[in-house]
Amino acid sequence: MVKVKIYTTPTCPYCSAAKRFFRSLGIPFKEVDVSRNPREAELLYRKTGQMGVPVIEVGNQIVIGFDRPKLERLLGIS
Predict the structure, then answer these.
(1) Contact of 45 with 20, CB cutoff 8 Å
(2) What is the CATH number of the domain that holds 25?
């Protein structure tokens, strides 16, 4: 199964929706709370140019925001 990593903050409603989406499909993911981890926040910015969340890595693909159709396509469930 492809690895999924999601960069989040506790107050982000789209982050919560993305996590519910993965859980509903039984897809394990690693969550990184960038509000508590400035080093990861900096790495995220360097990698994507984004300071907003969620940013989701599916394998080696990056999805900005909770783009459900793109996530479904990358996960092979569409």
Answers:
(1) no
(2) 3.40.30.10
Asked, as a colleague might, if the bond just before 28 is cis with ω within 30 of 0, I would say no
Q: Which residues contact 75 (CB under 8 A, 6 or more apart)?
A: 2, 25, 27, 58
DSSP letter (8 states) at residue 3: -
In three-state secondary structure terms, 28 is coil
Residue span of the structural domain in which 42 resides: 4-75
Domain tally, the chain: 1
CA 15 to chain centroid: 7
Q: What is the pLDDT of residues 35-75, one digit of tens each?
A: 999 999 999 999 999 889 999 999 999 999 999 999 999 99
Show the tokens assigned to 9. 């903050």
Rounded CA separation 45/74 (Å): 22
DSSP tag of 77: -
